[in-house]
Amino acid sequence: MNKWQKKGSIEDAVLISLFLIFLAIMAYPMVKVANDLNNIIQTDDNMPESIKATTNTFNDKWPTIIEGIYLLLLLIGYLGVFIFAFFLDSQPAFFILAAIFFTAMILVIPLLANVWQDTTNSEVFDDIRSKFVIIPFVMTNYLRITIVMWVVIGFGLYAKKVAL
Fold first, then answer.
1. CA separation for the pair 24, 139 (Å, rounded)
2. Which spans in 121-141 are helix H?
3. pLDDT of residue 54
């Protein structure tokens, strides 16, 4: 089978989950760097006021932009995986393979969520931690979100014969 003719697969959900965890971990350093650059620009006396105002506005909106991108990727990614799973012709015998992937993710996600929590609870991020709302909510409930996602994907994979 040509790899470009593949309609969808289990590893897509795994890759989306890992990418979202990586993005959640990297969001804090990205905002911290923008915040530090903004502080440097704001204290520079040679910098024009228009640039100071622009960077300050960007610095205020940057966490919201990152969280919006994160939420959009979460929803579109999992919705896309469900749609691909619904249109993928699968045999119930492959449920065992899906169960193995699901179990592996259930074991790995808490470890990665702990990495996120250890990273973001560092005193380095004390000044920006309060700027995030969506990412902490998702990451503290990521195991539950993943279980719901896998149940929905399972319905898409194995219950579609009733719908069609």
1. 8
2. 134-140
3. 94
Token reading at 46: 């040679």
pTM exceeds 0.85 for this model: no
**Start-end of H helices in the chain:** 10-43, 49-87, 95-120, 134-140, 142-158, 160-163
The average pLDDT across 138-155 equals 85
The 10s digit of each residue's pLDDT in 72-120 is 999 998 888 778 777 776 666 666 777 787 788 888 888 888 888 998 8
Q: Is 122 helix (H, G, I), strand (E, B) or coil?
A: coil
The SS3 assignment for 119 reads: helix
Q: Which residue has the tokens 């449920």?
A: 95
Q: Kindly report each contact of residues 25-31 with a partner whose C-beta sits within 8 Å and lies 24 or more positions away, as own/partner.
A: 25/115, 25/116, 25/119, 25/120, 27/63, 27/66, 27/67, 27/70, 27/132, 27/135, 28/119, 28/120, 28/125, 28/128, 28/129, 28/132, 30/62, 30/66, 31/62, 31/63, 31/66, 31/128, 31/131, 31/132
In 3D, which of 26, 36, 13 has the Cα closest to residue 135? 26
